Amino acid sequence: QLHRRGFRCLDGVDGSAGMLERARSTGLYQELRLCVLGREPLPAPAEHYDAVTVVGALGEGQVPSTVLPELLRVTKPGGFLCLTTRSSPSNLRYKAELEAALGRLEQRGAWQKLLAQEVEYWERATSEEESTQGTGYISGVVYIYQKCPVPNLEEG
């Protein structure tokens, strides 16, 4: 969808070489690198990207919420971060932890929340226990933040 809307400079990272190969086969990415988010720094300089997205990785047993400062590091001041997580029963503890970390960074002035939107039919459930009210789907949340610009320091 991003490519269809004119975004052409897309880089990607994943902890799985197989997933990187799948991404490479789309022809949509300029750079694809192996990186385990939360365990190693992103392979990009500070303030490099206009926007950073993490979809389908922020969840229980996947990428820890401690990755947030690293995502901020590679985002330009004034740039955007789009993050998602599931609202399924098995992910509620992680979601609460993630939202607490998001809030702490906002309180510190690192970024400003622009959107936190629940999506009822986020993805197909793999079990009836995970299904939201028997719909066969898992709900999720999309968060959009804008990194705060670096304040100008006045000499004096």
From TrEMBL:
In the UniProt record, the gene name given for this protein reads: Mettl27
Please state every residue range assigned to the domain named Methyltransferase type. 9-82
Extract the coiled-coil ranges from the record: none
Q: Which Gene3D superfamilies match?
A: Vaccinia Virus protein VP39
GO MF annotation terms: S-adenosylmethionine-dependent methyltransferase activity
**Matches recorded under InterPro entries:** Methyltransf_11, SAM-dependent_MTases_sf
Q: What is this protein called?
A: MET27 protein
Pfam families given in the database record: Methyltransf_11
SUPFAM superfamilies attached to this UniProt entry = S-adenosyl-L-methionine-dependent methyltransferases
